[in-house]
Amino acid sequence: MSIVAGVDIGSTTAKCVVLGEGSRILGKSLSVVGVDIVKDAERALEAAIQDAHLSRSDVSFVTGTGYGRYKIYFGQLVVTEISCHARGASFLFPGTRIVVDIGGQDTKAIRINEKGEVVDFAMNDKCAAGTGRF
């Protein structure tokens, strides 16, 4: 069985999901980001692997995304959060055409097609996006 993971290191939270055959969700994690983004990414992955009742050696591929995506040194691929939002929304909610992400640092509105591909997007240019986190 091929097992993969995606780690999203945002400006306020770290998220991870572990997927198995057929993109079935096996485990997940959500935690607050501190000052050490590298350790936060490692902890997010380990927590999701534990949630899936697996070990690190079971995971064959890791993708990183989010504000801290370049700090995910253990990943094999880096993808923008805009592309990940589009694909994830389309996977979880087929037929989705608009995704709005109100994050800790910015807000994004993303228009997607029936395949979950980004057609267009807009993003604010003000830090904190009015979310109250500075």
TrEMBL record:
Molecular function terms from GO: iron-sulfur cluster binding; metal ion binding
Ranges in coiled-coil conformation: none
UniProt keywords, alphabetically: Iron, Iron-sulfur, Metal-binding
Transmembrane domains' residue ranges: none
Ion transport keyword on record: no
Cofactors required: [4Fe-4S] cluster
Segments forming domain ATPase BadF/BadG/BcrA/BcrD type: 6-134
Alphabetical list of Gene3D superfamilies matching this protein: 3.30.420.40
Keyword Metal-binding recorded: yes
Alphabetized PANTHER family for the sequence: BIFUNCTIONAL PROTEIN [INCLUDES 2-HYDROXYACYL-COA DEHYDRATASE (N-TER) AND ITS ACTIVATOR DOMAIN (C_TERM), BIFUNCTIONAL PROTEIN [INCLUDES 2-HYDROXYACYL-COA DEHYDRATASE (N-TER) AND ITS ACTIVATOR DOMAIN (C_TERM)-RELATED
Name listed for the protein in its UniProt record: CoA-substrate-specific enzyme activase
Record organism: mine drainage metagenome
